[in-house]
Write a structure and sequence with these properties.
Length: about 120
Amino acid sequence: MEKTNLTLSQLIEAMRVAVANLGSFAKGDTITDIVTVTSAYEEIAACDELSESDIMLSYYWGIREHGTTLTSSSKNLDKWLRDFKDQPVAVYKIEYANCKYSIKLYLSVDDGDVMFGDN
């Protein structure tokens, strides 16, 4: 999945679709992840020194059957992937730039095989 030039509501819909067939913990965690992304945006947007076009956010969003992770750190993502290496997972890159959101498959792991979103 790759979607660009999204509004916040379109990003939320894309995230909802990504976890639609996963367990209830993944769905619940996704709500927390959405709040984290929107809160970060609101905090930065409140800074009078920045214009809307100056705001940039970037996250890795990992999903698995029983939960998610949202981090801007590749080290934290690597740890999460190691912790759940026995479970099929997908990782998306969520970004906010030029006043729009985007979500792109970064990598997926299924039965131990890693596939990057660029493939």
